[in-house]
Amino acid sequence: MARPKKATTAANLGFEATLWAAADKLRNNMDAAEYKHVVLGLIFLKYISDSFEELHAELKAEKDADPEDEDEYISRNVFWVPKSARWSFIQSKAKQPNIGKLIDDAMDAIEKENRSLKGVLPKDYARPALDKTKLGELIDLIGTIGLGDKENRSKDILGRVYEYFLTQFASAEGKNGGQFFTPQSVVRLIVDMLAPFKNARVFDPACGSGGFFVQSEKFIEHHAGKVGDISVFGQESNPTTWKLAKMNLAIRGIEADLGAEHSDSFLRDLHGSVKADFVMANPPFNMKDWGQPQLQGDKRWKYGTPPANNANFGWVQHFISHLAPNGMAGFVLANGSMSSNTSGEGDIRSGMVEDDLVDCMVALPGQLFYSTQIPVCLWFLARNKSDKKYRDRRGETLFIDARKLGTMVDRVHKELTEADIEKIVDTYHAWRGGKDSKKKYEDIQGFCHSAEKDEIKSHGYVLTPGRYVGAEEVEDDGEDFDEKMQHLTAKLKEQVTESQKLSKQIFKNLKVLGYGE
Questions:
Q1: ∠345-271-295 over CA atoms, to 5°?
Q2: How many CB atoms lie within 10 A of CB 498?
Q3: Rounded distance, CA 113 to CA 94, Å?
Q4: CA nearest neighbour of 213 among 282, 164, 145
Q5: Residues spanned by the domain of 378
Q6: pTM for this predicted structure
Q7: What kind and span of H or E run contains 360?
Q8: Predicted confidence (pLDDT) per residue in 444-481, tens digit
Q9: 156/271: higher pLDDT
């Protein structure tokens, strides 16, 4: 699938990485989890101030417009920013000892003037533990973002910075930080495989910082659409992560219904009536104590009550309950979900296969996530496999083994490259058919296989791609096996002899230096 060219790994980013390095130097002894809200709150303040000032200048140039009329901004979907909260004012006071209180007051003023931001913005900049000199330097640093021409002041530049900083904070916080963040390459893969269309309803009941919504809007924009062409619904149980999502989406200009507050999707579904065209999610892996005892007999458990100590199939059935008649879902789960037979999970999985809901399974490489090193997979469900937008694929499921893909971007983390994403997406679209299909599908040993329902049944309803795709074919170099073994054995003998010579020389040198006998 053709997309605009872009950097494929975090290591290739430009000014965002430079900006992060500078901001991180100012962190001092503050934990990444705490510093995250300090920085991202300021970036958000800079964004809404830049957007306001841009429109303010345009209104000032118009004859009959009043640049201080709040209604002018509301009508153009721009946040109203009081004078005491505008970036120019904040930056002019950056070196003052009361800068923390000025920022807190600015956040308060913005929330009072913009109801959609009520209770969202961080307001703890005046606390004694926050070094005010470092805070002033951070303000000056963030003040360099978005300066210059109109294009550079746009929300896209600030959005890129916000997104990059989210990634870096997730990495810095490790397991705990990764819970609010799905790696961008995984988000890209799920969104590109599902290929959301204009006027679609997109739902994520474990939305974290809102990455699936941002990427869905990008996908629509890349395909001749614009921001706002889809309806976005989300829910998040963590209060601080819910605020991050609200700010992240506001920076992107994305209107989303995330509920009036944070809430648990299992125990208090804020979007019970929503039937989505696309459900996208990265729910917490193998979540325990998720509220199963209070949910006995819940109407969502069509295929069986999920076990009390693992929410995986609670999430899956929650997703299914929110699918429209032709709806599709793509989500991340731990690998155990593909094969576990404990506590009725195998029965739930077999029921889904028999109802022909499982469209595609993708095994991912390890080390993609900040929150865990356990292997994970992608599930893709389709409520109606005979939907006329695609090929009639009733009774079929595609298996893709992508475990050998990905590139290391640091010592512990891997990313899927642009080529990796394209390979998986093109394979799925070729198999699924429809307007996004650019190639003819063929099984590739070791990578992909289209299986009939009976074949899946013969494997005990286990959905691990490796069971179906087989071993990767090894290219024949034309050398006879016996000759190759003789050649390799001779080479090994030569290397062992060389190793023994080196060992003797090392001990000889040590003896000269006075070590050893």
A1: 40
A2: 10
A3: 23
A4: 282
A5: 177-469
A6: 0.81
A7: strand 358-363
A8: 999 999 999 999 999 999 999 999 999 876 555 556 66
A9: 271
